[in-house]
Design brief:
Elements (H helix, E strand, L loop, with lengths): L3 H9 L3 H7 L3 E3 L10 E8 L2 E6 L2 E7 L2 E8 L2 H15 L4 E3 L6 E16 L4 E13 L1
Parallel strand pairs: 1-2
Antiparallel strand pairs: 2-5, 3-4, 4-8, 5-8, 6-7, 7-8
Helix pairs in contact: 2-3
Length: 137
C-alpha cells in the first residue's frame, strides 16, 4: 500500500494546473542543488494519531498529519500562484488520490493557512502552505 507522501506526490505530479507551473518538480524537504525553479517542496511536520476500536479491539491507526508545502519561485507573485494552485488541488480533496501503485484513500485534506517568505541570500521567494491530511496508516 502506498504511503501518504507517495500518494500526494503521485497526485500532484499529475495535477494539470500544477504541472503547467512546475512540471513534476515536487521534492521532499528542500530544493535539490541542481533543481530548476519554480518548484514545490514538501515535508510532514507532525502526525497526531488515534486508534479506532471495534468489538474485536483496536482496528486501525487513524492519522491527521500536518504537511507543509513550499512553493518556490524567483518572483513572489509566481510563488503565490503556485500556492493557490496547490490549494485548489488539495483543499477539500477526499477519496482515492494518486495513480498506479501510489493510490491511497484519504478521508479529507484541508488547507490550514499560508504565508510568504523571502530567502534574501538565495534571491528567491516561497509561499508556505500547511495542510491537514486525514487518512489511515
Amino acid at each position: 500500500m502506498a504511503s501518504i507522501e507517495e500518494a500526494l506526490v503521485s497526485y500532484l505530479t499529475g495535477y494539470s494546473g500544477l504541472v503547467a507551473l512546475v512540471g513534476t518538480r515536487v521534492k521532499p524537504f528542500h530544493i535539490p542543488q541542481s533543481e530548476e525553479l519554480p518548484c514545490v517542496t514538501y515535508m510532514r511536520i507532525d502526525t497526531p494519531r488515534s486508534m479506532t476500536h471495534s468489538s474485536s479491539g483496536a482496528s486501525g491507526d487513524l492519522v491527521t498529519p500536518r504537511f507543509q508545502f513550499d512553493s518556490w519561485a524567483i518572483m513572489l507573485l509566481d510563488a503565490q500562484s503556485i500556492g493557490s494552485v496547490l490549494q485548489a488541488a488539495l483543499h477539500g480533496k477526499k477519496g482515492n488520490i494518486g495513480s498506479g501503485s501510489y493510490v491511497k484513500k484519504m478521508g479529507l485534506i484541508y488547507a490550514d493557512g499560508g504565508f510568504p517568505m523571502e530567502e534574501p541570500e538565495l534571491k528567491i521567494w516561497r509561499w508556505v502552505g500547511q495542510y491537514i491530511v486525514c487518512a489511515e496508516e
